[in-house]
Design a protein that fits this description.
It comes from Flavobacterium luteum. The chain is α/β, with parallel strands linked by helices. It has helices spanning 19-33, 40-59, 65-79, 86-99, 110-117, 131-140, 153-156, 163-173, 187-196, and strands spanning 7-10, 122-127, 149-152, 180-184, 200-204, 217-218. The N and C termini lie close together (8 Å).
């Protein structure tokens, strides 16, 4: 690192909290409860990229939270030719949000790396997720106590990569950008957003996607020990 790091900011979903695994469990539950006769693997194969597309649109302020929650399900059901009424989609959307934070699978190494980092740095969260849901995820996964501050897009009024959310997080943490680092899975939102805001940044690149050579990356959370 170029400077002495004092504050480490983490993204939550897809970085510490295993979104895809927990999401699959939530869908499994609601499909069973509401007699949705769909092959779960087939559904998820289409839902996962559609959800990512909708989150990108949401991040770019192109759609609302309501449009995100409805649209990602509607598009998936349409793609697999499953007939379902809009009213039922809205119900499933609400139930999905209810069940999602009840599951608490974390990426391998999450607890160990947080235990390793906590004595050395002040730890924080910056997330584009919805406040109540993200807080429930942190509490149910029993990791909220590791973080001194939690900044979400609702309180900041903008989403990563907007520099305002990073400034908001810095103010809340009483940290300096020159001594802060961001760790997240999204190259655009987490890494470029942090770098353009004056942070250091490390990409959690679990799937080993090809990225620019100048971007620091780890494929497993415990590899952060080499950088911090």
């Amino acid at each position: 690192m170029k400077t002495i790091i004092t504050d480490v900011f983490f993204d939550l979903d897809h970085t510490l909290w295993d979104f895809e695994k927990n999401s699959a469990l939530a869908f499994e539950t609601i499909f069973k409860n509401y007699q949705i006769e769909i092959d779960l693997d087939k559904f998820l194969k289409h839902y996962i990229p559609i959800n990512l597309k909708y989150w990108e649109m949401y991040r770019m302020e192109q759609i609302t939270q309501i449009q995100l929650r409805f649209g990602r399900l509607k598009d998936t059901f349409d793609l697999i030719a499953y007939e379902i009424e809009d009213e039922k989609i809205n119900l499933l959307s609400d139930k999905y949000i209810h069940y999602l934070p009840k599951y608490n699978h974390l990426f391998e190494g999450t607890i160990e790396i947080l235990e390793y980092l906590r004595p050395k740095y002040k730890l924080h969260i910056i997330t584009n997720g919805f406040a109540e849901i993200q807080n429930n995820k942190l509490n149910n996964a029993n990791i909220s106590h590791y973080f001194q501050t939690i900044t979400n897009s609702e309180m900041a009024g903008v989403k990563k990569p907007n520099p305002i959310i990073f400034e908001h997080a810095l103010d809340k943490a009483q940290a300096k950008k020159e001594s802060s680092i961001m760790i997240g899975d999204c190259l655009e939102a987490d890494i470029y957003g942090a770098i353009h805001s004056g942070f250091e940044a490390i990409l959690f690149n679990e799937h080993k996607k090809t990225i620019p050579e100048n971007i620091k990356q780890v494929h497993h959370l415990l590899q952060l020990k080499k950088h911090l």
